[in-house]
Write a structure and sequence with these properties.
The chain contains 19 helices and six strands. By secondary structure, the protein is mostly helical. A four-stranded mixed sheet has the order 1-2-4-3. A two-stranded antiparallel sheet has the order 5-6. The radius of gyration is 28 Å and the shape is elongated. The relative contact order is 0.08.
């Protein structure tokens, strides 16, 4: 009987798979292998079972595992020179199957900068689809995977390539290869190995269910309950708005960005610790903003507002730094989606800096509520400049594959980038200029910027060809079938929002006056609820299960999210547009819209939270 102890190999960060397979190949007929490992090698059971080996496992008192592998009688019938049956990797083989069947292929995915997708078992997507999404030549990837899976040579598995030890970092070992088919050693994981997105996504749900959607419902119920205090209502409306922009949507965007952007760029995240710090700073900023308003009349609240603004600015700066460093270390060429993401991060920085200056002004004047002339450009810059542009960048990178749209029209989309950013510069810049000097002629540029933005949004939709497809959505086994429905309706909401905005801008240019508060609010909610939130729902149910290598939890609830949330969004926009004519009726309609939106969010939160729990269980099991 052969005996192989791999505990020291794993302790030193060396991948033992090659040594194990070499030992298995050299076993004499009817000879067994006793393997000693620091944990139960469950994945190795599957690999060797496919080659005719059974196993018996026992755990020693010190926690080590002894596994006895025995070959079946048929395994040695052809003698020691027989070759394993091999199923070649093709474009249609799922990544999960490749990794499970040939764990040594992880090195190939690492080499192309696309390792770590799909959790312990890899995503369900076929190799060809996976390669196309990650901008890797599919033919090259398939060839390299087959070379790693079954190199030329004799013996049971042939001559496997020598595994390279992971690069040391800060005295620890990077865990991408750690344990190989044996599994993953939790005790040697570095921070880089721990995915950040679950923390950000769970936190975004917590904010949405407290300061975001729930607070919004309470604000909508306030007039019906005859609660006094217009200043109270206005201050808490602004808290709710910042929580929705930076907490609900902002945390979600940051978490997804930290996971997908390095993979888009075929590299690793540059600065795990900085990314965590950006999370902490943003949470501190949101909490300080709330406490600053709650304690506004105690004196302590005056200091909390600038603390909140500083923390948000620090978070935005760290987010920008991490993405910039990640892009800089990438071997991948610059692409147009980078321009959208870069512009979105720049607008986040502008908004965070402006928020800080406004907070200082509030502190100096003793005000609690941001004047509408200052608040409107700030909110618009964060909503359209940061959230919408970032969404467009990710969509440009992923949705042509996910929705089978074909090649986007790059020239049209490049024009859309210039129109959107030019319009934002005019609208936000002129708005703030007008806030400083209400008599300034710069305010006349606001509707011009609005029309440029509307043209840019329309050009993007046309350039991406979002409504050219015959309805296929790039579904993989186990994928949620309603993904395409969410995404397409979200794009429809974007077009509705910019169309309304353009109508109000044209009216202003023709002398009809600037949009009223309720009209601007209708456009803002069409963007925030109809486009941004629905796009978050749609992309989340498509990509988060893929991140974790699990199925979407509670898909029936997600079906209801689509119906209930859309009805709530429609009622909210309609109630804002018609409330001046029938204020009493549409106060009730607005409250109903908020309740429906909250119900839809709760359903989504249940599904997403359970999906993240399934991911955590899968990682723990491995």
């Amino acid at each position: 009987m052969a005996r192989l102890d791999v505990r020291e190999d794993l302790r030193q960060g060396r991948e033992p798979f090659t040594k194990i397979m070499e030992t298995v190949r050299n076993l004499a007929p009817e000879e067994a292998l006793e393997l000693i490992a620091p944990f139960e090698p469950r994945l190795l059971y599957l690999v060797l079972a496919e080659h005719g080996f059974s196993h018996e496992a026992t755990q020693d008192p010190d926690g080590s595992w002894r596994v006895l592998f025995r070959a079946g009688a048929a395994q040695h019938a052809a003698g020691a020179t027989m070759t394993m049956a091999h199923q070649p990797v093709t474009l249609n083989t799922s990544v999960r199957e490749v990794v499970m069947r040939y764990p040594q292929t992880v090195a190939v995915f690492e080499r192309h900068g696309i390792a770590g997708c799909g959790g312990p078992d890899g995503p369900l997507e076929p190799v060809g689809f996976f390669a196309a999404v990650h901008r890797v030549n599919p033919a090259v990837l398939v060839r390299e995977l087959n070379e790693a899976a079954l190199p030329q040579g004799r013996g049971m598995l042939g001559t496997l390539p020598q595994a390279q030890a992971p690069a040391a970092r800060n005295g620890t070992v990077a865990p991408q290869r750690m344990g190989g088919v044996l599994g993953t050693l939790p005790q040697v994981q570095t921070p880089e190995a721990k995915d950040l997105y679950p923390l950000f996504l769970r936190s975004s749900l917590v904010v949405a269910l407290s300061l975001g959607f729930t607070a919004g419902v309470l604000l909508l119920l306030a007039p019906l309950l005859a609660l006094p205090g217009a200043a109270w209502w206005a201050a808490h409306t602004q808290i709710h708005g910042q929580a929705q922009l930076l907490g609900w949507a902002g945390l979600f965007v940051m978490g997804v960005a930290y996971h997908v952007y390095p993979r888009f760029k075929r590299t690793s995240l540059a600065g795990h610790g900085l990314a965590l710090a950006s999370y902490g700073a943003l949470v501190v900023g949101l909490v300080a903003r709330v406490l600053g308003h709650v304690l506004a009349y105690t004196g302590a609240g005056d200091l909390l507002l600038p603390v909140s603004a500083l923390a948000i600015l620090v978070s935005a700066g760290l987010f920008a730094l991490v993405l910039f460093r990640t892009a800089r270390r990438s071997p991948a060429p610059w692409e147009l989606f980078d321009a959208f993401i870069g512009a979105a991060v720049a607008w986040l920085l502008v908004g965070a800096l402006a928020n800080g200056l406004i907070s200082l002004q509030l502190l100096a004047t003793g005000q609690e509520v941001v004047p509408q002339a200052l608040d409107e450009p700030l909110v618009h810059g964060l909503l359209v400049g940061y959230l919408v542009l970032f969404t467009l960048g990710v969509a440009l990178r992923t949705q042509p594959m996910f929705l089978h749209l074909g090649a986007p029209r790059i020239g049209v989309i490049r024009g859309a980038w210039w129109l959107l950013n030019g319009g934002l510069l005019l609208r936000v810049g002129a708005g703030w200029w007008g806030a400083a000097d209400p008599a300034s002629p710069a305010l006349a540029l606001v509707p011009v910027g609005t029309l440029l933005e509307a043209a840019g949004a329309g050009a993007f939709v046309a350039g991406l060809g979002l409504f050219r497809s015959g309805g296929r959505t790039g579904l993989m086994p186990g994928a949620y079938p309603g993904f395409g429905r969410f995404v397409r309706v979200a794009w429809g909401w974007l077009l509705v929002a910019v169309a309304l905005d353009a109508v109000f801008a044209l009216r202003a240019l023709l002398g009809g006056g600037a949009p009223a508060y309720f009209e601007a609010s209708a456009v803002r909610h069409a963007l925030a609820l109809g486009f941004v939130s629905l796009m978050i729902f749609g992309m989340a149910v498509r990509i988060v299960p893929t991140f974790g290598g699990v199925a979407l939890a509670a898909p029936k609830l997600v079906d209801w999210v689509f119906v209930v949330f859309n009805v709530g969004a429609v009622l909210r926009v309609v109630s804002l547009l018609l409330s001046p004519a029938w204020p009493e009726v549409f106060r009730a309609v607005a409250a109903l819209s908020g309740v429906l939106g909250l119900i839809g969010l709760v359903f989504f939160a249940i599904s997403l939270w359970r999906t993240l729990d399934a991911t955590a269980r899968a990682r723990h099991a491995h």
